[in-house]
Design brief:
There is one protein chain. The chain is an alpha+beta fold. Helices cover 44% and strands 23% of the residues. The longest helix has 35 residues. The relative contact order is 0.07.
Length: 637
């Protein structure tokens, strides 16, 4: 090998070594990787140990399946419990008891089995079809919550399977559930404190646990599982909004799929985990942060009575000495924008929770319109004590007035194009289809002389589109519509079915919503009026049919949507038709045509604008190139 070859090898080796050095993980990254691997191993050991303990306790209960005649004595029972639980043997068995915390909005039932919240009831709300009992976010075994403990003798225990002891507490809306040990002065307390709203604080307070738990513990593995019951009439629509969401430290929201089974691992720090339904959520908020998290969302069977099942496995810091307490907050309440946003009032930006992001308000620009215009307007009208139907009606009027100038410009542009149709037809006859560029050039010249811009009819529609989309996002998620009736619709937050059938029609389902049907009929009527007032090419009959097909498509799209949204579109269409009729009465085609002819005379001697001149130059250049290509093709023949 020559000198250059050796130099090449040395350069390649230097690049490889340098790249390896630059990409070598830091000590902190290596430590984090090791901790994650340890956490995974710990979870596997915990599952195996939990199964072993379960098998042991089955023996404790009486007999085995293979030897039913062999009874377990009381002494053998205690020995097996002691072997399985060590110093936590006093918590292995017991009698389940319940403690209740309640304020004017929320009732929580705490169970001594696992020290968990067994039931959360919202006293201001009811499930669909039940006007008596409070709405339950979860009850019984629909939710499980617990930590993995490693004892001093290397036993792996799950607090969800252990029995706590209630401790007397004189403070109102405060409960202490104690996990006892065989040592008289060593225990772990779960301290619950219910606030005046929908938030409850949970604090883990260890007392002399240094001798009962492994000394190297600096974090606890948390397992939280919850089934989400169907609360609304429209399951299909409710599924669209039921979603596991979590907020990373720094304010970045992450979501799991709402339409299919999904799982996700998060190696970064997580501030809170939200188990979300259409109108209600259970949110677990860490005082510090969650780390090494794994989330799972599973869609439930249609006939199970549940929408989703959510699971979170994560880690939280834990101080054995109790000097630094491990704390959480549970939010059990409605997805109400102002209620959720109030938790950030007066809080520094880096410490804000941003729970209001649980309320879906659309894309960024649409969300700005919702928070800056739609929600304040909705609050204003509802604050007057008006019926929700009147509120939506007033909002429709205000929105129509806001976008009225844009609609008028669009309609006037269409009217001008209609008035110029005879002259455009004359141009089309003068220039046949094989001279399309000349036809376009003559048409653009006519528009320029008449003072008409084809784009002026499209741009105003783009300005009003975000406002329409804001209402599309806001109304189906507004919990204020839930349970509110209007005429035949008993609940404006779901569909208002007036016809049911036992079979399923593709895209339509098993019902027909009346507000949606009326909206479709009104939309077809508006399309007819619009088509009559517009200049259309008789050769484009397909486009005419498509204009009528679109309203029919809305029937299938909105049949499952909230009746409040269909009602808004129905009222909006009535106002649109009314506006169109007024425009037709106020705008005279002959008068507009005379004005455009006057514009032609005024602009006849004026030089063309720079844009129009460049456009015509480009068209002439295209014509020249086309002629040259045609000549070249003819010569090649």
């Amino acid at each position: 090998m020559d000198k250059n070859t050796w130099i090449g090898f040395l350069i390649i080796a230097a690049i490889i070594v340098g790249f390896t050095m630059l990409n070598r993980p830091s000590k902190e990254e290596l430590a984090e990787r090791q901790r994650v691997q340890d956490s995974i191993s710990l979870m596997r050991m915990a599952e195996a140990e939990a199964q072993r303990i379960s098998d042991s306790l089955q023996l404790v209960a009486g007999t085995t399946a293979t030897q039913p005649e062999q009874k377990v004595t009381e002494e053998q029972m205690q020995e097996r419990i002691q072997a399985a639980y060590g110093s936590f043997a006093p918590a292995a068995t017991g009698e389940e008891k319940w403690v209740t915390l309640e304020n004017e909005h929320l009732r929580l039932t705490l169970s001594t089995r696992g020290g968990r919240i067994e039931q959360a009831e919202l006293l201001d709300y009811h499930a669909s079809g039940d006007s008596i009992n409070p709405l339950s976010l979860f009850r019984g075994d629909e939710s499980s919550f617990g930590f993995t403990l490693i004892t001093a003798n290397n036993r792996i225990l799950q607090t969800a399977n252990m029995f706590f002891t209630p401790v007397a507490c004189e403070e109102p809306n405060k409960a202490i559930l104690r996990l006892p040990t065989s040592a008289e002065d060593a225990w772990l307390d779960y301290v619950y404190e219910l606030s005046e709203d929908f938030m409850v604080h949970l604090s883990l307070e260890p007392h002399n646990m240094q001798t009962e738990l492994a000394q190297n513990i600096n974090s606890l593995e948390l397992q939280w599982n919850q089934l989400i019951p169907q609360q609304e009439q429209g399951r299909k629509f409710e599924e669209r909004y039921a979603q596991l969401q979590y907020m990373c430290v720094g304010g970045e929201m992450e979501k799991l799929s709402e339409s299919k089974d999904d799982s996700q691992k998060e190696s970064g720090h997580v501030k809170w985990i939200g188990y979300k339904d259409q109108f209600f959520s259970t949110v677990l908020i860490a005082d510090d942060a969650f780390t090494s998290s794994q989330f799972t969302s599973t869609v439930q069977s249609k006939y199970s009575g549940y929408i989703k099942e959510y699971t979170a496995k994560t880690s939280v810091p834990f101080d054995l000495t109790g000097k630094t307490l491990t704390g959480f907050r549970f939010y059990c309440g409605p997805n109400h924008y102002h209620t959720l946003k109030a938790y950030d009032a007066g809080v520094e930006k880096e410490n804000r929770l941003y729970l209001n992001k649980l309320v879906p308000l659309g894309w960024k620009i649409v969300s700005w319109i919702n928070t800056g215009l739609i929600i304040p307007m909705f609050d204003l009208f509802t604050g007057w004590g008006l019926h929700i139907g009147i509120v939506i009606l007033l909002m429709t009027i205000v929105i129509k007035l806001i976008i009225l100038p844009f609609v008028f410009v669009s309609y006037k542009s269409s009217a001008k194009m209609r008035a110029l149709k005879p002259q455009i037809d004359a141009i089309n006859e003068k220039f046949p289809a094989d001279k399309m560029q000349e036809r376009q050039q003559a048409t653009m010249q006519l528009y320029r002389q008449a003072g008409v811009s084809p784009m002026s009819g499209c741009l105003p529609m783009l300005f009003q589109f975000p406002v329409l989309m804001a209402m599309f996002w806001f109304l189906p998620t507004a919990i204020e519509l839930r349970g509110k009736s209007l005429w035949w619709a008993h609940d404006l937050s779901t569909y208002d079915a007036v016809f049911h059938w036992s079979f399923n029609i593709p895209l339509l389902g098993d019902h027909l919503s009346l507000f949606c049907l009326l909206m479709t009929i009104c939309n077809i009527g508006y399309t007819y009026i619009t088509m009559q007032s517009q200049a259309t090419d008789p050769n484009m009959k397909f486009m005419k049919y498509m204009m009528y097909a679109m309203p029919l498509m809305f029937l299938f799209i909105f049949n499952d949507y909230a009746a409040g949204l269909s009602y808004y579109y129905l009222v909006s269409l009535f106002f649109t038709i009314f506006q169109t009729m007024i425009f037709r009465w106020t705008l005279d085609d002959k008068k507009m045509l005379a004005e455009m002819e006057e514009n032609k005379k005024k602009k006849a001697g004026k030089p063309k604008s720079g844009f129009m001149q460049r456009l015509e130059n480009m068209q002439r250049e295209q014509q020249r190139l086309a002629r040259e290509q045609a000549k070249s093709a003819y010569k090649r023949r």
